[in-house]
Amino acid sequence: MVGLGARSRLVSTKPPTYGPDSHSASVQEHREPSLARRIAFTAIIVVSVLWVANRGVEWSERRGYVDTQRPAETVQFLDEPAFELDGHTFRTSSYGEGTLVSSEFAANKADRFRVFVLGGSFAMGTPYVNGESPQHGMEGGIASWLQAHLSHRFPQSTLELVNAAAGGQNARRVREIALEVLELEPDLLLVATGNNEGNLDPSLVQAELRKLGGYRLLRKLLLGSASKSGSWFTQQNPDTSAIANQFRGHISAILDAAQARGVPVLLCTLPVHLSYLGFEPGHVITGTQWPPMGGPCEDGLRAFEAGDYAGSLGPLQLCIDGPAAHQPPPVRSYLALAKLELGQPDAGPLEILEEERGECIARGISSYYRGKYRAARKSLRRCDEIADALLWIGRANRKLGDPEAARNAMAQSVELVPRNRTRPSFNAILREEATERPGVFLVDLERAAEELSPDGIPGPSLFLDYSHMHWWGYAAMADVVLAKMREFGLEPAEPPTLAPPPDRRSLARAFRLPPLPASAHPLPPPATISATDLTP
After folding, report:
1. Pairing state of beta strands 265-269 and 188-192?
2. 443 φ, ψ to 5°?
3. Cα angle value 95/100/102 (rounded, 5°)
4. Which positions ≥6 away from 35 have C-beta within 8 Å?
5. Is the peptide bond before 329 cis (omega within 30 degrees of 0)?
């Protein structure tokens, strides 16, 4: 019986009873994943999808299928490498083609002499050279003249002079391009920047996010393509001391990186067009936006900026007679000033200036054009629009035979409202940085432009507009750079030829540059470069 009972217990079909431990184990086997695990799995999936989508966007952008850039932001950031390896050659990347000129140079440097020119549109050579679309063979800027002269003097050397400047970029983006090209074995950097300072840098988070193509595309879709163009001038943040400190920091970072790699730097101050008459508002960062340009509006502004007042009258009037939505802010002031410069001081231009610039400035300008320079100066000293007043006080001082006072007043005007000209104080920063570091050599283009200008006040004899030069102005600046290269021993190692420098007029024809106008007078060479022919 005992045995049978035991056997019965062994084969019994009675449902088993479970203790507390057995019940807990069973529930855990069938419990759904915890909230933390679900969040982790979801995050992994989302990140993977976004990573794939981002790589797809960047792949499409490199092949030209999609454009993630908003026009107004193109030269504010360096979102992708500016140069890429293509077989045995480095080329301007598809991303870089939007702002830089097309360049290529050997991946294997060997014994080549390699120079990178860095900076904004002045260093690039605008308007003769620009990066708005892929281009080859555009000539007329400083880099063009350097290449021509060095190739002539060192025919046995293989020269690679790469124009890595871009219009509209400030020192922050120049710094990023400098850090990239320092990885490409340069023998020399030429840095000429300062005309586009005014905005404070974006946050580090924003700068890093912009390196993702997907983020740029999403930003463009959400904010629009911004087809309405911005001002020709960099908008100005009112905190000028912060802008100056930021500029110094970027320059210092470039020089630190070059020094760490043993690469010498030619650090250039920038010429300042002190007598520029432009009336663009845009003093603070919320300045007026310009409509898309083209047609008579652009033709008129460009002619005025170049000092061709007679040629500007017709297009400017056509612009004013056209749709108001197409008119840039300073067009009425430009027409009024063009008439005054041409000896037409009737009531119309003065009424326009009073409406556009205020009664005080208009009164001073009226006295100036009537030849009453002391009265103009006295009147302008009472004006609240200090930057404009200083410009016209400087012009009056010049007429009164005091070029030093004129130059000082005009320089103060630029310091307050630069209008895409480098502030004189920024050139002072460059001089300080150059004197404090080994391997950094100052090229004082500001002083050279003053020596080449009547009364030491740079103006239309060198400049096409607020900061860009005629081709003969760029050629003169290139001669200063060449002289400094010789002085500091920064030329190729091969012995130079003793032949005279290439004829400038012949080079201008080869570059297909416009002929030298009859009104352009020969430019006297500075004493430091007297061995070089500076006469266009």
Report:
1. parallel
2. -120, 105
3. 90
4. none
5. no
β-strand pairing of 83-86 with 89-92: antiparallel
Give start and end residues of each alpha helix (H) in 400-516.
403-416, 424-435, 445-451, 471-488, 504-510
Structural Rg of the chain based on CA atoms: 31
- The H helix count followed by the E strand count for the chain is 21, 8
Structure tokens given for 14: 């009675």
Show the CA angle centred on residue 28, arms to residues 27 and 31, nearest 5°.
Answer: 85
Please name which of 257, 306, 250 lies closest in space to residue 277, comparing C-alpha atoms.
306
Measured CA to CA, the distance from residue 174 to residue 161 in angstroms comes to: 17
CB atoms within 10 A of CB 281: 16
For residue 16, give the 3-state DSSP assignment: coil
> What phi, psi does 134 have (nearest 5°)?
-55, 125
Specify the pTM. Answer: 0.80
As a whole number, the mean pLDDT across the chain is 81
CA–CA dist 294, 302 (Å, integer): 11
CB 379, CB 363: distance < 8 Å: yes
pLDDT digits (tens, 9 = 90+) for 204-255: 545 555 555 555 556 555 555 544 455 556 666 667 889 999 999 999 999 9
How far apart (Å, rounded) are the C-alpha atoms in residues 20 and 522?
A: 105
- Strands, DSSP E only, in 256-361? 265-269
Q: What is the reported pLDDT for 138?
A: 73
Residue matched to tokens 């996010």: 209
Q: Do the beta carbons of residue 304 and residue 342 sit within 8 Å?
A: no
- Give the long-range contacts of residues 318-322, CB within 8 A, separation 24 or more: 319/295, 322/295, 322/296, 322/297
- Residue written as token pair 């620009």: 130
Q: Which residues make Cβ contacts (< 8 Å) with residue 108, sequence separation at least 6?
A: 88
* Residue 127 DSSP one-character state: T
pLDDT at 67: 63
Residues 432, 403: Cα–Cα separation, whole Å: 26
Give per-residue burial for 133-169: e unless 16+ CB within 10 Å, then b: eeeeebbbbbbbbbbbbbeebbeebbbbbbbbbbbbb
DSSP 96: G
Q: Characterize the bridge pairing of strands 104-106 and 440-444.
A: unpaired
Q: Cα separation of 266 and 147, whole Å?
A: 16
Q: Tokens 């290449």 — which residue? A: 147
Rounded to whole angstroms, the Cα distance separating 141 from 468 reads 10
Q: Directed axis angle between helix 424-435 and helix 240-260, to 10°?
A: 30
Sheet of 440-444, strand order: 159-163, 113-119, 188-192, 265-269, 440-444
Residue-by-residue DSSP string for 97-136? GGTSPP-EEESS-TT-EEEEEEESHHHHTTTTS--SS--S
What is the per-residue pLDDT across 243-283, written as a single tens digit (0 to 9) for each? 999 999 999 999 999 999 999 999 999 999 999 988 765 44
Residue 456 neighbours by CB distance under 10 Å: 15
* Residue carrying structure tokens 């930003």: 219
